[in-house]
Amino acid sequence: QVQLVESGGGLVQAGGSLRLSCAASGRTALAMGWFRQAPGKEREFVAGIRFGFSTYYADSVKGRFTISRENAKNTVYLQMNSLKPDDTAVYYCAGRAALHSSSWSGDDMDYWGKGTLVTVSS
């Protein structure tokens, strides 16, 4: 049984920073991703990191967000800088068992956390 638990969400002013964490238990050899869903919008991919540390980003967050992982701690991070009100959403951590797949579609992720809310005020 794989469990993903996010933490680190909260309220921040525009231009500020937050760091999200996702702790994994159970099977931990996973490609990991962060997704988000804003009110009234569909879920979207934010960032992904393979088990071998290759990283991928949505265009909307490139240069502002950084995904990283500590395999020894079974933890993935999302450092979010220069936050904008448009970044307001529930952020979900997700894991994919297919380590070498290049897909970051939410439909291809096998495990999901419950989400953490990020609110960016203007």
How does this structure look, described?
- It is a single chain.
- This protein has strands at residues 3-7, 10-13, 18-25, 31-37, 44-49, 55-57, 65-70, 75-80, 89-96, 111-112, 116-121.
- With 122 residues, the chain is an all-beta fold.
- The strands form two sheets. Strands 2, 4, 5, 6, 9, 10 and 11 form a seven-stranded mixed β-sheet that branches.
- The mean pLDDT is 94.
Features:
122 residues, mainly beta, 7-stranded mixed beta sheet
Short description:
The protein has 122 residues and is an all-beta fold. The chain is 0% helix and 50% strand.
Strand content: over 45%
The helicity comes to: under 10%
CA gyration radius, whole angstroms: 13 Å
What is the residue-averaged pLDDT? 94
**Computed structural class:** mainly beta
Q: Would you report the number of β strands?
A: 11
Number of helices: 0
Give the helices and strands as they follow along the chain.
EEEEEEEEEEE
Give the termini distance in whole angstroms: 40 Å
General shape? globular
Largest sheet: 7 strands, mixed
Unreliable segments of 5+ consecutive residues: none
List the helices and strands and how they pair.
Layout (H helix, E strand, L loop, with lengths): L2 E5 L2 E4 L4 E8 L5 E7 L6 E6 L5 E3 L7 E6 L4 E6 L8 E8 L14 E2 L3 E6 L1
